Amino acid sequence: MKRPTIADVAKAAGVSKGAVSYALNGQPGVSDTTRRRILAAAETLGFRANSAARALAGAPSNVVGLTLHRPAKTLGVEPFFMELVSGLEAELSTHSYALLLQMVSGSDQEIAVYQRWWSDRSVDGVLVCDVRDGDPRIEALTRMGLPAVVIGPPAASGTLASIWSDDGVSLVEAVEYLAALGHRRIARVGGLPELSHTAIRTQTFTRLAEQLQLQTVTVCTDYTGEDGARATRRLLSSPQRPTALIYDNDIMAIAGLAVAAEMGLTVPADLSIIAWDDSPICRLVHPPLTALTRDISAYGTHAARLLLAAIDGKPVTDVHDEPAHLSPRGSTAAPPADAQPSRQAPRRRATRQAA
Q: Where is this region: Disordered (predicted)?
């Protein structure tokens, strides 16, 4: 898809390039009616006033864009993204590239940001997070021709190159560990169900319940500590409360640890807890949390390296990064003897939305 030029705007408005320059720069020399027609044509084509100058210079912006669909106030308490950004910056800085971070409220706004970046050449490429099946951002970026790399599963990345870590492998390791300890009632406090990596975790969890004859349930949340705490209270208030909980991020696991104490349960004697995406805070709480650990900073470095190759026009393919592996700590142990269900008990598998 060709970027619009000042000549394109002039042709669409039926005027000279000089008239377009006057109109876009607010200078006299064109009538109000002509100015409005030129501005409307520029808006329709997605033209920005400074794109012509940048195109004439022929220089890259040396900037990579990253958009995140989440409240800005949560970014500072989300260890995963802070570590990811540190890895991105580490690689980008060695190539004199900067990272442009933009918070958005939804995919429509995100696509509009991509369109603006593409039109005025603010960035040379973008990284895409939190992909969904049939994600409209993938089609939009492909159509623009803006170099992009997806941080997520290849199945949801279309023709764009992706870097991903197999969450199914990690979940198998966590569940098999809990089953080996003797847990038969295991719940998962999951993230946003529409995200591709969340779907992989949920599908794997359901399959393991069948294979290992476990009683399982998944409760979906928005990844915040508040929603994780609400989900934990619901699960621990049920008549057949789980003896182990797996959380889709560390913030919710820490909130769940506090809820367990609030309800008079001891971790790990009464309840075992596993957190996804290990962080320093997991080792500072009491007891320290068993967690699924990976080098997230290195993950960001590898993602930046892949995108820079795409920007340079090199052929790029999907990269399968190292999956998270279990780091057992003090929050997991065998379940209480009186909590063991009968092996003939019916298996319970469900996915529901946290209140």
A: 318-355
Separation between Cα atoms, residue 31 and residue 10, nearest integer Å: 15
**pTM flag (> 0.85):** no
Parts of the chain with a pLDDT under 50: 51-58, 342-350, 353-355
Cβ atoms of residues 219 and 188 within 8 Å: yes
∠ CA 170-172-178, rounded to 5° = 110
pLDDT of residue 51: 44
Residue 285 contacts residue 321 (beta carbons within 8 Å): no
pLDDT of the residue at 204? 97
pLDDT attached to residue 164: 95
- What does the pLDDT read at residue 346? 41
